[in-house]
Amino acid sequence: MNQASSPTTSPRSTSSLAWGLARRAASRLTRAAALFALGLAGLACVAPAQADERRFTFVYETTTTPPGAFEFENWITWKSHKNEDPSYDRFEFRHEVEFGLTDRLMASVYVANWSYTDGKSVDGDGVNYDSSGFELIYNLLNPAKDPFGLAVYGEYNGGPDLHALETKVLVQKNIDRWVLAYNVSLEAAWEQEDGLWNTECEFQQTVGVSYEVCPKFTLGVELLHQVDFPHWSEQEEHQLYAGPNMSYRAGSWWVTVTPLIQVTSNHAEPDFQTRLIAGINF
Amino acid sequence: MSIANRHPRTTRIAGALLALACLAVAACRSMEQVVPPVGPAMLSSAQGASAEALTRGRGIYLDACIRCHVAEAIGDYGLERWRAKILPDMSRRAKLSPQQTAELTSYVLAARETLDRVAGPTGR
Q1: Which residue in the set A53, A65, A176 is minimally distant from B34, CB to CB?
Q2: Contact A120, A1 (CB under 8 A)
Q3: In the prediction, which pLDDT does A115 show?
Q4: Residue B11's pLDDT band (boundaries 50, 70, 90)?
């Protein structure tokens, strides 16, 4: 996206510059809102039937999909407003098919991960196909029967400019109507930029607490802590996000949303991110 | 410099959340209260089901049901509601086999009847 024209001292050109900036901001917001609304509308079109759902969006639970069950999930993550680029907006989409293989093992296929990015600091605005991939989760301990729930997670994502491997350890404890969950993850990524492949490592921790108000509705909070290590050596600034979450399920469909705000001061990362996941069970 | 000094706002938020979580956990019912273990009193309500079958039924309750929601307290719902609505509906959704469904049903109904005998009918 082009930068705004250079400011001048004349009142007339200052006024037209302000008008131009306002128009550009309005147009950007309208496009962003329209895209978000389109995504939501698409998700809302999913017909209701029955449930096996997530109560968190950034945190994974240790329980797995029952063997023989299928689920289709759609993700939207909206990242916005970097301190160094307030015009920044990024929408990330994921379409995922999840299925239970055994009592303890489940698999997911990411049919497509794609994104729309806009902002003054972004070189190529617009829609981009990022990758496809798969994940496996193996449950080791049950969060209700055992002292705590435990599962291991592996994921691969590959695309024209990206190969990434991610591993997580998932921990969970159910206490009465409360669910406490913690994930720690390490991701190794190889990204292509201007014909060169760069390596990066990302360390991430997430914590979630959720209260089941009734079987159809849960409320909670999520925390996301992340730190990147470009080239596996340099360490970038920490990022910590926090925010509420809620999940609603009816019949075989469910929807979970978490708006997060950055509570650290990492100016290179978005100040806000909101993730919405909607799923339907078969 | 400590993390608390560098990020005072983050530390305050984390402290408040921790205090809230401690309070909430202190008010919770134990898993034994929510999903009672199999005992002699329950066996007398079991209508022929063995202790092993009831224990397997309790295991299914704690395995299959929590994939989608927290373990609901058996005493929160009345016997008839369990029998006519919840158990058939949830067994289908959890894709349980006929044998698993039978063992789960035996356990839940025996546990619910035992609670009725001990404390009188409760639940919705």
Answers
A1: A176
A2: yes
A3: 94
A4: confident
Total count of residues recorded for chain A: 282
The full set of domain ranges for chain B reads: 1-29, 35-119
Contact with chain A for residue B59, Cβ under 8 A = yes
Q: Which helix (H) or strand (E) holds B100?
A: helix B98-119
Tokens at A35, concatenated? 């895209």
The whole-angstrom separation of Cα B120 and Cα A38 is: 53
Rounded to a whole number of angstroms, the CA Rg of chain B reads: 20
Mutate to test the interface with B, among A141, A146, A176, A207 (most CBs of B within 10 A): A176
- pLDDT value of residue B1: 57
Phi-psi region of B10 (alpha: psi -120 to 50; beta: other; left: phi over 0): alpha
Domain extents in chain A: 11-281
**Annotation: CATH topology of A11-281:** Porin (2.40.160)
Closest residue in chain B to residue A212, using alpha carbons only: B70
The ipTM assigned to this model is: 0.73
**pLDDT tens for each residue of A10-44:** 444 444 444 444 445 445 544 544 454 444 444 44
Separation between Cα atoms, residue B85 and residue A10, nearest integer Å: 76
- The ranges of chain A with pLDDT < 70 are 1-52
Nearest to B94 among A66, A145, A178 (CB): A66
- List of chain B residues whose C-beta atoms are within 8 Å of the C-beta of residue A99: none
Inter-chain residue contact B66 with A67, CB threshold 8 Å: no
Chain-chain contact of B71 with A174 (C-beta, under 8 angstroms): yes
Which pLDDT belongs to residue B3? 59
Smallest Cβ–Cβ distance between A174 and the set B66, B68, B95 belongs to B66
pTM for the model stands at 0.78
What are the structure tokens assigned to A16, written together?
């037209």
How many interface pairs between A and B have CB atoms less than 8 angstroms apart?
Answer: 67
